[in-house]
Amino acid sequence: MRNQGAGTGPEMEIVHLLRAVAVELGLHSARFANQNGMHPTDVRALIALMDAARAGEEMTAGRLGSALGLNSAGTTALVDRLERAGHVRRVRSEGDRRRVVVEVDQRAVELGQAFFGPLIGSAVDLLQGYDERELAAIRSFLEGVREAAAEG
Amino acid sequence: MRNQGAGTGPEMEIVHLLRAVAVELGLHSARFANQNGMHPTDVRALIALMDAARAGEEMTAGRLGSALGLNSAGTTALVDRLERAGHVRRVRSEGDRRRVVVEVDQRAVELGQAFFGPLIGSAVDLLQGYDERELAAIRSFLEGVREAAAEG
DNA sequence: CCGAGTATCTCGCTGAGCGAGATAATACGG
DNA sequence: CCGTATTATCTCGCTCAGCGAGATACTCGG
Description:
The structure is a homodimer of 152-residue chains.
Chain A (H helix, E strand, L loop, with lengths): L9 H26 L4 H15 L6 H8 L3 H13 L3 E5 L7 E5 L1 H22 L4 H20 L1
Antiparallel strand pairs in A: 1-2
Chain B binds a DNA duplex (30 and 30 nucleotides) through α4.
């Protein structure tokens, strides 16, 4: 049986630290949401939309909803909210006219970059202080945790 | 001006990886919430309560609410829910009888350990594959990100 | 004691998200 | 082609988490 307890070794300290980082990043997103009259779900949606855009993929209403764990009714309400706020546009897909492609407005992208940019910049600055082997350790640890969390 | 763009350098890759980990950990908590008929806020509350217990501190209703960003009405409703589900007990503070100390039930602790234990164990196992310098790099990077996120 | 301050709770309300089902467009066997 | 199954989104009515306002209960300094 692996270590599951509230041990106090150096490994557990890092595990708690990682959890604390996750909580802190969540609170940071919540601040962004509050400042812009949005809800946590709306922020998660914008992030998913920007990720898709960066990967060059179209994001339909349905894919967005399932990425966030919403049903179709909730997804419609979410896209309504974001569209009313001017953060996204609904575009009927040309190929399949049942589908609604959700596009992020450039203004929303800039809003997000203005808010999250400094934090991302700090993280990049931090990383520039490590050598190859240290960077590889950080990367492989994060990769491993992501895989472990995705399985559960 | 620091790096804010959608750069593709090795640093940005790690930053996106960290964000992905945060998202994945959030989804993992959401699965725990669903499996036990709870809401995300309830899970966050249990985690805050267990953290306080581990630190040997009493958690009052008010402190719990402000840790989660709820007002007093929402906090009362939250503690009502958790108490109804048998996860916590309300105990009037002896010293100051206005205060309500919220205590986690042992059953809830075990429930949480059963669910999060494997993931924590995997992370600890992962960490045992690194040497001192690599562990120090992981720790200091996480510490730095936490501080940067807490400032914003 | 009395009034100010503090911790929690009650009440009424708003709105995010759900289940069920409607609507509209596509796929596909005959 | 036609009819039926399938898929994508939307509409409707509802539940319940969380909010604002204010009530209640306790503490403490003067």
